[in-house]
Amino acid sequence: MRFTIPEHKKLVHEMTFPIRWGDMDVMGHVNNTVYFRYFEIVRLDWIFELTADAHSDRQGPVIVNAFCNFLKQLEFPGDVHARMYVTNPGRSSFDTYVTIERADQPGVVWAEGGAKTVWTDYTTRKSIALPDWLRARLGV
Fold first, then answer.
1. What is the pTM assigned to this prediction?
2. What does the chain look like in DSSP terms, one character per residue?
């Protein structure tokens, strides 16, 4: 089953980083689990860009589900260019979507995925309302 990335989404972050030799598996391509690490790298870079200390108030993002559509096999060497989008903001959650391209082949999506992100009070381990500063950045 292929998950569909919504047409209406807001680009919030882009970054480029290297494909590491150790990202590959015995088959000679980037291991499927590493794509989730790539999504995490982009998501955390965005969060830390928003606030230097995302955990200062003992609250922050928790991923409650994630998916990836593997479209083409990435291989070393090369650089990944990732774009992250947000959509569907609610009281305490929003969805993130990431597209992965090779930097040397712009416009060709090699993988796409996303996650449901819930803003959480880390002390009580319960969802809480998105902070006003985050709502402003999400455009809601």
1. 0.88
2. -PPPPPSS-EEEEEEEEEPPGGGB-TTSSB-HHHHHHHHHHHHHHHHHHH-S-TTTTSEEEEEEEEEEEE-S---SS-EEEEEEEEE---SSEEEEEEEEEETTSTT-EEEEEEEEEEEEETTTTEE-PPPHHHHHHHT-
